[in-house]
Design a protein that fits this description.
Glutathione S-transferase Yfyf (Class Pi), Chain A, domain 2, globular, alpha/beta, 290 residues, four-stranded parallel β-sheet, Rossmann fold, 12 helices, 2 domains
């Protein structure tokens, strides 16, 4: 089966380890991802603040290219990319006039029939059916599953069943042998695109997330968004200054955590590329009994 793949800008740059770990997990389970040819930036996170038509045209072009390529399902791992592409599909599907205008801009026909999958949906649909035979390790630790804003908002395109208390990532971590904690910061904002312009706000918001996870006994924080990962991982010096204490909980992408349980080497998963060392997570692995 051909499964389309939209990496977006982050997964080919600042979050390459997310891309590498996703491909490693897919390869282990015999799943082939086909990159959408000639894909372009989805416009996150600024296009929708500047020009609404442009903010629709950028994701619409990618959808049209996926259709032209004959892809029925496309996995979009980045939460921001998912939000922009799913939001565009929703608007185009419900407004014929807008659809016609956007088709004129991109000079491509668009049915908007392509199914857009989050990383959770991809894992559950394509990886879970065979993953048990590949799991050789147990992640013997407590994990805080952090979903962030964009998988639960707006409700028209929410990628989870329970908006206030999503469980999709928790299910993946349980499959990997970890113990997901029960906490209230699953969908709180980390500061998102303010990372550069207002790092102080990011430090305050992300600091609350990290502190609460630590207070509840979490030994790692698991994310599925490049921006969330950047703010929780890279902004740790600013967070330390904000909290007036040092919390060294590592932040992993969901595919890195699952990959560890499948016996994929840590370097192949990009775990050596994080600002906060991930050694504690790697060292907590318990070999499953045959």
């Amino acid at each position: 089966m051909r499964i389309g793949y939209y990496p977006g800008c982050s997964l080919e740059g600042s979050s390459k380890e997310y891309n590498d770990s996703l491909f490693a997990v897919a390869e282990k389970c015999g799943v082939t991802l086909e990159v959408i040819k000639d894909w372009s930036c989805c416009g996150a996170s600024a296009a929708h603040n500047l020009n609404h038509d442009l903010a629709l045209a950028l994701p619409a072009r990618t959808l049209a290219l996926a259709e032209k390529q004959g892809l029925e399902d496309i996995v979009v791992p980045c939460a921001a990319c998912y939000s922009r592409i799913a939001g565009t599909k929703n608007e185009i599907s419900n407004n014929i006039a807008v659809k016609a205008k956007i088709e004129g801009y991109i000079d491509l026909k668009l049915t908007a029939d392509v199914k857009i999958l989050t990383v959770f949906e991809f894992l559950q649909k394509y990886i879970f059916p065979t993953v048990d035979q590949h799991i050789v390790n147990k992640l013997n630790q407590k994990a805080a599953c952090y979903y962030g804003c964009l998988y639960t908002r707006p409700k028209e395109i929410a990628a989870v069943e329970q908006i206030e208390n999503p469980m999709e990532m928790d299910e993946v971590m349980a499959k990997a042998g970890a113990t997901p904690i029960d906490w209230a910061f699953k969908t709180e904002c980390c500061g998102a695109g303010l990372s550069v312009s207002r790092t102080d706000i990011v430090a305050k918001l992300s600091g609350k997330i990290i502190e609460d996870a630590a207070d509840r006994g979490a030994e790692s924080i698991v994310v599925a968004c490049p921006m969330c990962h950047m703010n929780l991982d890279m902004r740790r010096p600013e967070i330390k200054k904000q909290l007036k204490k040092d919390i060294n909980i590592p932040v992993l992408f969901i595919t890195q955590a699952l990959g560890l349980s499948m016996g994929i080497p840590a370097d192949k998963l990009g775990l050596n590329k994080h600002y906060v060392p991930t050694d504690k997570v790697v060292n907590c692995i318990v070999k499953m009994e045959a």
